[in-house]
Amino acid sequence: FASEGQDEARKLRETGDILPLEQILDKAKQKQPGRVVETELEKKSGRHVYEIKIVDEKGVMHELKYDAKSGELLKAKQER
């Protein structure tokens, strides 16, 4: 899967095909408090997915993946 560029992401947002990143970040921080260290928009299996990486207060990295159109949490895992 390839990361979408900023121009492509803006077009998708403007057409309503994806939710704004800020909205997804709010959801991610509610699910997993910590510091956001990376965000990515990917196209995977024909749909856009936001991948958010958050480091918690113990230094553990959490990866959360959200459907970019619906905002549904698809996957959450800790990275070791």
What's a quick, concise take on this entry?
The chain is α+β, with helices and mostly antiparallel strands and 80 residues long.
Explain this structure to me?
This protein is α+β, with helices and mostly antiparallel strands. It is built from 2 helices and 4 strands; from the N terminus they run ααββββ. Strands 1-2-3-4 form a 4-stranded antiparallel beta sheet, covered by helices on one side. The longest helix is centred in the first third of the chain and has 11 residues, at 21-31. The chain is elongated. The relative contact order is 0.21. The model has no long low-confidence stretch (mean pLDDT 92).
DSSP, total strands: 4
In DSSP terms (H or I, runs of 4 or more residues), the helix count works out at 2
In terms of DSSP E residues, the strand content is: 35-45%
Class computed from helices, strands and strand pairing:
alpha+beta
The largest beta-sheet arranges its strands as: 1-2-3-4
Separation, N- and C-terminal Cα atoms: 22 Å
Mean pLDDT: 92
- CA radius of gyration is 12 Å
